[in-house]
Amino acid sequence: MSASRTTARRRLAAVAALPLLAVALSACGYGSEKSSSDEATGVAAGAKKTDGLDTVRIGYFPNLTHATALVGVEKGLFQKELGATKVKGSTFNAGPSEIEALNAGSIDIGFIGPSPSINGYTQTNGKSLRIIGGSASGGVKLVVDPAKIKTLDDVKGKKIATPQLGNTQDVAFLNWIAEKGWKVDAQSGKGDVSVVRTDNKITPDAYKSGSIDGAWVPEPTASKLVAEGAKEILDESTLWPDKKFVITNIIVSQKFLKEHPAAVEAVLRGSVKTNAWINSHEDEAKAAANKALEGLSGKALPADVLDPAWKSLRFTDDPLASTLQAEADHAVKAGLLKKPDLNGIYDLKPLNKVLKAAGEPEVSDAGLGVK
Q1: How do beta strands 194-197 and 313-315 pair?
Q2: Is the per-residue pLDDT at 30 higher than 50?
Q3: Cα separation of 123 and 244, whole Å?
Q4: Could you tell me the residue ranges of all domains in the chain?
Q5: Member of which family (predicted)?
Q6: How far is it, in rounded angstroms, from Cα 361 to Cα 371?
Q7: 96: closest CA among 4, 16, 1, 35?
Q8: 77 Cβ partners below 8 Å, 6+ apart?
Q9: Per residue in 191-219, pLDDT tens?
């Protein structure tokens, strides 16, 4: 398939796909691959395979909200826990394609947002995945053209971008609009506010051209827009209790979880140790994440984008399960999702085992754990 056809189909998917209601994504392949053997940190001498596996395949996005995966792979922290079982990373640009890869058996474990997690679980009647841990909270902002929008009330009548119809930020923005008392048709994006579904890679150019007046987007896109002259007028974390909400969690194929529990625990140990290292080595962690992004995309983030983006993120082992239920409720309210049964979407027993061994408190599944 040609690059132009692939790009065109991906743009079509970004506009037409509903990630809360459809798993399939009309794009070629499941994601680009990168093995930890490409890193300076390799398999330790004398190490043994975990669960007899040659590799564990981990999916994630080349995105700061997936910094646990970026840093864990870059610094070899997952590899250290897996011994002679090599880490093979695959990167994705959209949640539906990562869910598709998990369902097809192309990856075993993934770092992903809450909406595609809900989608993947409900569309297979609870048979495809489990959420096994947290990764990141926060990192989503409403940024606008200050010449056109000076207050939140000024958003009415303007064109605001979200990354994709039905994705996590799209649902959050539609819910905020509804709470303002404004009306928007969720499918078309038309109404008191024009919701313009735009790929994050295109959003900065759309802003510069004036085709949008602002965007409700994750980092680093929000900070890229600010670097272009936009102004932040709302941090989504201020809308949540304790300013915490899930932006990235960890999922696993139920088949892999059942057949390779030691490998799952090893990845979770790597994640817990990575988050601890990130939170105690901010500057080094930020540099490691940026180095990983440069390796994946060919371009590092400049300081005026990286620094403010990093400050808005919180890296946590807690999946913040109660906020997942709230996000699902928001999607139902917006008319994008039939009320889902999320019972059993979490299995936090392996994570809590890892946390207990590390002397850390256990985390809650908010009553949505597997029985």
Answers
A1: unpaired
A2: no
A3: 27
A4: 3-138+245-357, 140-243
A5: Belongs to the bacterial solute-binding protein SsuA/TauA family.
A6: 21
A7: 16
A8: 71, 270, 273, 274, 277
A9: 999 999 999 989 999 999 999 999 999 99
Class of domain 3-138+245-357: alpha beta
Does the pLDDT of residue 2 top 50, yes or no?
Answer: no
Q: Taking residues 312-332, report their average pLDDT.
A: 95
**Which tens digit of pLDDT belongs to each residue from 49-87?**
999 999 999 999 998 999 999 999 999 999 999 999 999
Pairwise CA distance, residues 345 & 331, whole Å = 17
In angstroms, rounded to a whole number, what is the distance separating the alpha carbons of residues 323 and 368?
12
Specify the CATH number for 140-243; select among 3.40.190.10, 3.40.50.1970, 3.40.50.1010, 3.30.2290.10: 3.40.190.10
210 Cβ contact list (under 8 Å, min separation 6): none
Q: How far apart are CA 286 and CA 368, in angstroms?
A: 33
341 phi and psi angles, rounded to 5 deg: -95, 105
Pairing relationship of beta strands 55-60 and 214-218 according to DSSP bridges? unpaired
Q: Do domains 3-138+245-357 and 140-243 have the same CATH topology?
A: yes
Residue 109 phi/psi, 5-degree rounding, is -135, 145
- How many whole angstroms separate alpha carbon 312 and alpha carbon 303? 14
